[in-house]
Amino acid sequence: MAQFFSLAAFTLCGLAILVAGAEALVRGGSSIGLRFGLTPLFIGLTIVACGTSAPELVVSISAALKGKGDISIANVVGSNIFNISVILGITALLMPIRIHLQVIKIDIPIMIGISLLGIGCIASGPLTVIHGLLLVSLLIAYMSFTYIMARREQQRCEVIAVTEVHPQSSRSVLLDLLFVGGGVALMVEGSNLLVDSAVSIASLLGVSEAVIGLTLVATGTSLPELATSIVATYRKSPEVAVGNVVGSNIFNILGILGTTALVTPLSAPGVRSVDLAVMLLATLMLLPLAISGKILSRWEGLLLLLGYGGYLWWLWP
């Protein structure tokens, strides 16, 4: 029992360091983006979404390099499930989420297509450099497309929705660089601590590393997205949560799986077809929920949370 509590403490420390590093990276990256004249909307859809997904990236690469492919891929699958089911569920319970037509017509369908591609890559066998090049190339194409769309969409309400949640440019370039560099360093250290303690907990509890990756690790690395969504809701901009979740889920598959596959081949025999099916189902469910009145209501948020609870009940022995 003492060993379990010790490992749990190390896990919490790793999560805290990851969240602190992600926050620093988002602040520094957003400020630098504003200095280069990037629109707040583009920063929110790209830098912030990628920044809040940075813990997943660092953890997946760290796990892959240690030969823990189950944790690496399970982290991405579990995070995508958690983002939609829990983050949007909690946000909708706090305040019904208004969903922009552009998100319904463009971003959610893109997320569904990319999720299908990611599932196909995972199910086909080990992820190789070829998979990595394909996924990263699509990420660059998506970010370019998002930039073009953001330049066209300069509506005042969208700009305010992002700038209310994320900071303005700071007064010092050096401070921005320190935030970015310090954030990356913190995330590397936190990810190593998290992966090592998670593997030890899996061994101690007698569960697979994939289960730990799908639940404990995925939940921990999704905390920045959860924090961003709660802050957005508190500041009366809950619609920002949808863009953050959609952007993060797209980045998780294209950026995290793609980059990790470029670093080292990936395979995850512990991630079952049922887990991939749950990720796809959660992704597909978001579209009809979003279309119904263009609002994610409280009862729909509760439905998402109950669905995640059922998945956990089935997953854990």
From TrEMBL:
UniProt GO cellular component terms: plasma membrane
Main location: membrane
Domain Sodium/calcium exchanger membrane region: 8-147, 178-316
Mode of membrane association: Multi-pass membrane protein
One of the GO BP terms on file: intracellular calcium ion homeostasis
InterPro entries reported in the protein's UniProt record: K/Na/Ca-exchanger, NaCa_Exmemb, NCX_ion-bd_dom_sf
Pfam family name, one: Na_Ca_ex
Region forming the signal peptide: none
Membrane-crossing residue ranges in chain numbering: 40-65, 77-97, 109-142, 240-264, 276-292, 299-316
Gene Ontology molecular-function annotations: calcium channel activity; calcium, potassium:sodium antiporter activity
Subcellular location: Membrane
UniProt feature coiled coil, ranges: none
Keywords recorded for this protein, A-Z: Membrane, Transmembrane, Transmembrane helix
PANTHER family: INNER MEMBRANE PROTEIN YRBG (PTHR10846:SF8), SODIUM/POTASSIUM/CALCIUM EXCHANGER (PTHR10846)
Alphabetical list of NCBIfam families matching this protein: calcium/sodium antiporter
Protein name: Cation:H+ antiporter
Organism: Desulfopila aestuarii DSM 18488
